[in-house]
Amino acid sequence: MSSPLFEAAKKNASTAYKLDQGGQANQAVRYYVNAAEQLQQLINFTDDTSMKNLYYQKAMEYILRVKEIRGIAGSSESRSSSSTTASSKESEDEIESAISSVIVREKPNVKWEDVAGMENAKRALREAIILPMSRPDLFKGARKPWKGILMFGPPGCGKTYLCKAVASEVDSTFFSVSAANLISKWLGESEKLVKELYERAVEEAPSIIFFDEVDALAGARGGGSENEAMRRVKTQLLQAVEGFGTGEELLVTVGATNTPWDIDAAMRRRFERRVYITLPTKNAREKMFQIHTRGVPLDSNVNFIELSNYTAGYTAADIALLCREALMYPIRELDAEGALKNKDIQPRAPSFNDFLTSMESIKPSVSPKELTRYEEWKDQFGG
Q: Which CATH number is associated with domain 1-74?
């Protein structure tokens, strides 16, 4: 909690409280709002679910106090029914704006064949999403499609990328939502945003709703830092995943998380299919090196098979970063020589040694201990 952003929020909150207690409530509003906005940013910067809830709770307190102050200011005799209606319309417009800012409706341009490896995960998602949406006539009665799917695993292993590839394989509307942003973007209105999101998805079915960082919304209920507003959001989400609309629409909720152990037990049950997205295999790593060096001529001594052997334990994101680093070496050499300004001089082709040198600074981002925890969760809850 000692980050500069937290300290700034703490200072603003302290100033607001002093002004508020001193009878200067209107002057306190600006400081309450600043503190709440800074706490919203902190929600996005932490992976700790309990801290997200704590920041959310405090920010909610400040926003609710601001609403109280403004409510008092607006309750004078001069307030008319027309101004009340205008205020209500303004609030609806603000909620609509908030919805648009956290929901990305798109048709992903990610091809199924571009996903390297992950064969088990691809098969599971094909059976859970692609087949039911492609042949809904086959998934009737007892063979009903899954409503909720959880993708879990270490960060940087391609969960979001894989979900986009799934969406590109079927003719469906793809809603991409950052759960952390959904909480922080419009404090106090998250419950309405969840309801509105699912109503839209039903209208535009078949639909896929993808929640990134779903643990931020679906953490264990009843914690000491959880407030009533957060509990209502979780209850709304539980009901929505269980079945929204008539229940017959082709609508599937996909959640991605790096911390599956933080998810509430009731929400875990709603995710009927749990898919483990683990580190890429040797063959997948070889394909990733090919993908992340496209468009750059390489030295003939670059051997992707050898590189895949050397990078056991690397995530997909690690390999992408490793390639970017290796491809920069020839540019750095020209820059060091002061030759970049001469457009007639071209950089040499990146060599095998450039990749090996890059491995000295780009290390695997997931430890064996962390992998063990994912394996244990998979063994206990499936995946």
A: 1.20.58.80
State pLDDT tens for residues 193-208: 788 888 888 888 888 8
Give per-residue pLDDT as tens, 278-294: 999 999 999 999 999 99
Euclidean distance between CA atoms 219 and 49, whole angstroms: 7
CB 182 within 8 A of CB 102: yes
The DSSP call for residue 298 is -
**pTM confidence score:** 0.71
The CATH classification of domain 105-278+374-381, taken from the options 1.10.10.10, 3.40.630.30, 3.40.50.300, 3.40.190.10: 3.40.50.300
- Return the number of other C-beta atoms located less than 10 Å from residue 191's C-beta: 17
Q: Does domain 282-365 bear CATH number 1.10.8.60?
A: yes
Total count of residues recorded for the chain: 383
Q: Does residue 23 come out as left (phi exceeding 0), alpha (psi in the -120 to 50 range) or beta?
A: left
* Cβ(47)–Cβ(154) below 8 Å: no
Please tell me the distance from the alpha carbon of residue 309 to that of residue 312, in angstroms, as a whole number.
6
Residues near 7 by beta carbon (within 8 Å), at least 6 away in sequence: none
Q: Are 210 and 254 in contact (CB under 8 A)?
A: yes
Residue 212 DSSP SS3: strand
Give the separation between CA 260 and CA 254, rounded to whole angstroms.
13
**Which H or E run includes 208?**
strand 207-212
- Rounded to whole angstroms, how far apart are CA atoms 213 and 160? 10
